[in-house]
Amino acid sequence: MELSGWGRYPRHSSNVVSPGSPRELAMLQRHIPTYVARGNGRSYGDAGIGAGVTLDMRRFDRMKGFDETSGLLTVEAGVLLADLIDRFLPRGFFPAVVPGTRFVTIGGMIAADVHGKNHHWVGGFGDHVEALKLMFPSGQTVRCSRDDNSDLFKATIGGMGLTGTIVEATIRLIKVETGWMRQNTVRAENILSAVQLLTANEGASYAVAWVDCLSRGNALGRSLVYLGEHVSLDALQERNPGAPIYPNTRGRGIAVPLDAPGFLLNRHSIRAFNALRYARARTKDELVTWQSYFFPLDGLDQWNRLYGRRGFLQYQFVLPHQTASRVLPEIMGEIATTRDPSFLAVLKTLGKGGGQLSFPMPGVTLALDFPVSDSIFSLLDRLDRLVVEGGGRLYLAKDARQRPETFEAGYPNLSVFRQQRRAIGAEGRLASMLSKRIAV
Amino acid sequence: MTTQPGTALIIGGTSDIGRATALVYAEHGWKVILTARNDEEGLREVNHLLTASQAKAELCRLDILDTESFGPFINSLGTLPNTVVCVVGMLPTQSRAVADTAYASLSLRTNFEGPAILLGMLADRFEKRGTGTIVGVSSVAGNRGRASNYVYGSAKAGLTAFLSGLRGRLWHSGVRVVTVMPGFVRTRMTDGMKLSPFLTAEPDEVAEAIYEAAESRHRDIIYVRRSWRLVMGVIAAMPEGVFKRVKF
């Protein structure tokens, strides 16, 4: 069947099988020549599409055990983050790291070593994984952690499913007193002042900036910086008495019923929207629910259809602090002058990555959305050169088009990673359309 | 009035509807006893219930074909559950069921003989105690035998008739019997079939409907998707002379 990632580009045909138990999974793996595991299909490009067969892991959706004192939770790899939060937030626990959507599986979060708005001080999701159960192509299962099979553990965190199928994981949850976030909004006049604000606020628990990519001149990359803190019970009762401690809506919000016509998101509509959003924003301090702080887009089911039938590309890069202040304005300048508008642009600071192929490095990351068009690919090729020249790299969970050279230049641990793959018999057996394209 | 939480016994606790039903009962504060034929699979479900809901949960091994074991199984339960929900079933391939008698027999025994005998035995205990709720998950396929699935349908017809009779026998004793008609459900059993979205329920929806019918609204027979009542009404009203000519 035809498969794609969340960006709906590229689309490839792959045979999808859905094993229901570890026994079935082992048997399948022994008989299928090449495959990769897929979670809930929320990586944007081709990472979750098997070269040959795709193993749909969503039937591995059981939770296995939880220890209140340590906050350690063991789950099967196909458990959705949304279900985890539904079950554990009312008990006062929250994942230490969450990405921008809760409709991802735990296995997928580990494979992509996803980061949140707090990477600058807590690291990625992988940094809160205690142990993993990994199944090799032979069907053999091993446990790995920072103490046991530690090299394999580090290869698997951020390893895009290419070092074995993640079957089970033990992760550490943090304690929270409420489901509310205190959000401070601050305006930044251009991209560099946004970076400065983010760096100056590294003491904040969560920090992220929304960037207007269509502003020009001195206002190039003007931004709204959002700082966040978990709200204590006392603070909630003082500022919002009577509010439910754990506001919880299980609903998935409204859905985008059809593919939007491609012209809906054009540079004029986006410019108008951005100008309005920036103009209306004031420096403010408010309490918002966990959903609206962490997962604003989850309220709009299937928002990926807004980009029309051709789909869209996510482009997320990271640049080290030393080069960011020079290269970021160059990149913003390139984007502002093209005909391809980016609707969503998000800026964050990152710390050190936890795995061999983890995307984060100490520096600044910018994520951009572009509708697929004929001209977009050459623009992104130009951006690739700027990123590589600045010593940065691209996020594999979002990538749909980078060349092997760009990948190789950005990931210095690649040779160690390849050795790990050889050691467990993954070469030639574990392959996604991503791993083939960038020649992992 | 909603029943006070007690103990629910879920027969067939590793099926998609069984899992969902167990979770709904657990979320309402019930203790749940799951039965499974396969220990490994049963353990996955029980651990999930314990972790996801903080409810009390236990696992019992039970093979619905092993009618000899039903007596010892019920005795091993210690205290008798307040509610039993039987979701056991198998959907045979009709063409194979026509040609292969052992396979047809397996389907008849799984869908009718096993559930009827087990629920009948539990009904006797419930009757002696004077309380209890028995929920049988049957099928609209049992409302009228169709050429395309009558081996399955006839077993479910048997189960529906059995539950109906049991309800009549027990209604004055304080024991209630609920018949559930799920219609199409998106489960492993129907994987790969093309199903009308209007007539197809999710397992969670069936589980909620079971809990509601058994514990709060106290219904006798429920169709999870109401549209099925209309569909089956039309099918039941067709004269046999017409019905036998219709291919579906």
3D structure, described in words:
Chain A: Residues 9-176 form the FAD-binding PCMH-type domain. Chain A: InterPro entries: FAD-bd_PCMH, FAD-bd_PCMH-like_sf, FAD-bd_PCMH_sub1, FAD-bd_PCMH_sub2, FAD_lactone_oxidase-like, Oxid_FAD_bind_N. Chain A: It comes from Mesorhizobium muleiense. The complex is a heterodimer of chains A (440) and B (248). Chain A has 440 residues and is an alpha+beta fold. Chain A folds into 2 domains: 58-176, Uridine Diphospho-n-acetylenolpyruvylglucosamine Reductase, domain 3; 180-401, Alpha-Beta Plaits (2-Layer Sandwich), CATH 3.30.70.2520. Helix content of chain A is 28%, strand content 25%. Chain A has helices at residues 22-31, 81-88, 106-111, 119-122, 150-156, 191-200, 233-239, 267-280, 290-294, 321-337, 376-389, 404-410, 414-423, 433-437, and strands at residues 2-4, 11-13, 15-17, 35-38, 53-56, 63-67, 72-76, 93-95, 129-135, 141-145, 165-175, 180-188, 206-211, 223-230, 254-255, 284-289, 300-301, 312-320, 345-350, 363-371, 393-394. An 8-stranded antiparallel sheet of chain A has the order 16-12-14-13-19-20-18-21. In chain A, strands 6, 7, 8, 9, 10 and 11 form a 6-stranded antiparallel sheet that branches. In chain A, strand 9 and strand 10 form a beta hairpin. The longest helix of chain A is centred in the C-terminal third of the chain and has 17 residues, at 321-337. Chain A is globular. The two termini of chain A are 24 Å apart. The model of chain A has no long low-confidence stretch (mean pLDDT 92). In chain B, helix 1 runs parallel beside helix 2 (39-53) and helix 1 (16-27) crosses helix 7 (203-216). In chain B, the strands form 2 sheets. Chain B has a 7-stranded parallel sheet with strand order 3-2-1-4-5-6-9, with helices on both faces. Chain B contains 9 helices and 9 strands. The longest helix of chain B has 29 residues, at 101-129. Chain B is globular, with a radius of gyration of 18 Å. Chain B has a single domain (7-243), classed as Rossmann fold (3-Layer(aba) Sandwich), CATH 3.40.50. Helices cover 48% and strands 16% of the residues of chain B. Chain B has 248 residues and is an alpha/beta fold. The A-B interface holds A 20-21, 23, 62-66, 73-76, 83, 87, 91 and B 40-41, 44-45, 47-48, 50-54, 188.
